[in-house]
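Title: Prediction job returns without error message
Component: structure pipeline
Severity: low
Priority: P3
Assignee: unassigned

Description:
Job completed but the reporter wants confirmation the result is attached to the right record. Sequence as submitted:
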Amino acid sequence: MHARLLSSISSLLCAAALVGVAGCAGVKVGSISPAEYLAQRRGDVLTTGRLSTSAEEVLRVIGSDADLCRKDGQACRNALADSSGLSDEQRLSALSEVWLQVALAAEKGGTATDATAIEAWFETARHAYAYLFFTARKPRDRAFEDRQTQVRDYYNYAVQQAITGLYHGIRRNGSRNAAQPELPKIGDWRIETDVSGLRLPADTPLPDELIPAASLTFSGLRNTYRRDGFGAELVAADNKRTDDEARQADPADPTDRTPPRPPYREMPFPAVTALLLFDGTSLAEILGTRTLRIAAYDPYRTANVQLAGQEVPLAANFTSGYGLWLARSDFALQALRSLFGGRDGLTEPRIYLMQPYDPNRRTVIMLHGLASSPEAWINVANEVLGDETLRRRYQIWQVYYPTNAPLPINNFAIREAVTQTLAHFDPTGKAPASNDITLIGHSMGGVLSRLMVSSSEDKLWDALLASYPMQGAQQRRMEEKLAPYLRFEPLPQVSVAIFIASPHRGTDFANNRISRWVANLITLPVAMLGQLGDISRELIRIAPARQDQGTLRIPNSIDNLSDRDPFVRLSSGLPMNPRVRFHSIIGNDTPGVAQALSSDGIVPYTSAHLDGAASELVVPSAHSVQENPLAILEIRRILREQLRTGPDPAR
């Protein structure tokens, strides 16, 4: 009875409040879900299209709201800038977000190159920059605050959009020099550029595209590796520096004087991190300046930058450039063309640097297998570069070579390519990049890696003499022609080798019906046929009785992988450099079979196993074991171990 009476009285009082007779509670409490909580705390104009809770609070303090600010943007921004009831942090963070809203609307209504949109991006970045570095508290004091993370994102996104918009204008102007591009006019802004943080050769042309790394997604790559920090993560795409960038001389045309191209290629899609830096040393100067500087950095070389007297981590994306290179290079098709001697196939090795050359990083050289390409290392290279410790200490070079060529020829050609590349970047040979190199080879690439750390002694030459007796001038002439292929010493720069699913003693798989059919389809390049044809004809003259029907067939790569091949049988016993510490990673796709009888489906354990290995890991996997996560973890372990121990002088 009393409860009903109290309820009735309460209702009457609240009703009276409507006509000003009395008051009632104006605040009611409710509850929200975890998702609503996060949206309330972290949602903003970038993620939801609406101003953040923080910005709306600031607008209410000055008697405005999101709708009023959108209707009269200039008045709203003036009120934010002039209000004495706001702290610098409140004012600047809100202005950065409001300008971001203006920039997004301008970009949506026009194009990315519109001066109006770019100016709004400048203002977004300027106010975010001022908030982060020119307010009373330093970034470290706000390290756990959601608002600082939001404002950093406003800056990074504004820099990304402003610079890519400017770059469209630069390309439209026809500017070619990357060091001094001709910038488009944006209002009364004075724009300077600083590319000293990039390693640019003389007269470097501008890239064809400047692509936001965040706009790229990839299938085939397990992970995208980045570093959180300050700045816009970009990819500089130079489409002219892919595989077809320069024509090679025609070996069949003696009048073709096309100069040989170097065996190395630096990454045609390098990662770049860019900043917009505003002129001034105080808050007032930053907010009043009309001068800004675009600073570009190689994120592999620069991890931190000094801004306003503070060390700030530089944002980076270490995967997007690599992924874009693989996606645009069409390696899979070209590898098949090379194998079967098709037009536009590869005829000589090329070495791709996965990042700009760094003399202070150790070098890891990767060699793929038969009918393959750098795509064999898709996740291996990405996972190594994604490891912060390894990325700081190593650089990756990938060897891309014609897998139709016989092993002796590729052994010689790849050695020459590696030697020339090292000599170009480090003529003195003293840099860490030229010493303690790690070779990683898969399948046939592992066989080649073993040859490159082995000594032929006189074993290969003596075996040839046993079959083709010669002497005097004839012997000297043949020895001169065959010496590059039959006489070699270990590459002195290599101290570690990792052999993955490598048929060191050949494989019976190369003898089966399908393999022999494929082997018969393989065609060697014209230049190679001409050179080896001269040698084979002379060998026929030396010992014609040894030839079937008077001809000597030049072996190709599949022939060399057979466990019956004379070269493989001889080379498997060649001594390796005792200084080289070597490891084996072997696949086993035959569960339930004793390890000694196991196989990865192509290479038997007995062929992949090497006595004396520093470590051996057998992974449940088919032949493409290099992409197995367990194998990648083992590669990372070995590389980390090498950093701790260095070369073993006792070996």
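Comment from assignee: result matches the submitted record. Residues 15-22, 243-247, 515-522, 547-553 have pLDDT under 50 and may be disordered.
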